[in-house]
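re: that chain from earlier
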Amino acid sequence: VQPALAPARRHLAGWGEGWLHMAPVIGDTVTATGADVLLISLGLIDLGFYTNSEQTEANVRAFVAAARAANPRVRAVLLPVIPNVRAGYDAPFAAECARFNELLAKAVADLDTAASPLLLASVPESYELDADTYDGTHPGPSGEHKLAAAFAGAMHQAWGLGGPYAP
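^ sequence. v structure.
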């Protein structure tokens, strides 16, 4: 069971963890925190080290099921796998990322319900590896703002939550 999350760090992120690792713990975390909106950016680590696109998509479905078992009205915004340097030189990995993003879009469409809606955010077209990451993979400050804007925009447009993102 995950420890209580501090107010300033209300996330379940962990180094080297992905859908594979989060699916078994999300239910307890939703219960413990009372979370009703989940913002999710996972998949890159799964595809890079642990699972292929089909296995990762199965973990997405397990994650959503566990979150909903803990809170049947939970909402979630999911981000596709973000651009990364490895996809630029490893064609099979790039293909897995592209395939997973297709499967993720299908899973979001399949699993979306009125009681527990799911949204698929879009990685901003302006997101650039050189400018928006500190190592070609992990978002730096400008990348973090662009991804935050993607989540905020999706929630505002679809659910009327918040407003347009302002850094």
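The first helix runs from residue 19 to 22.
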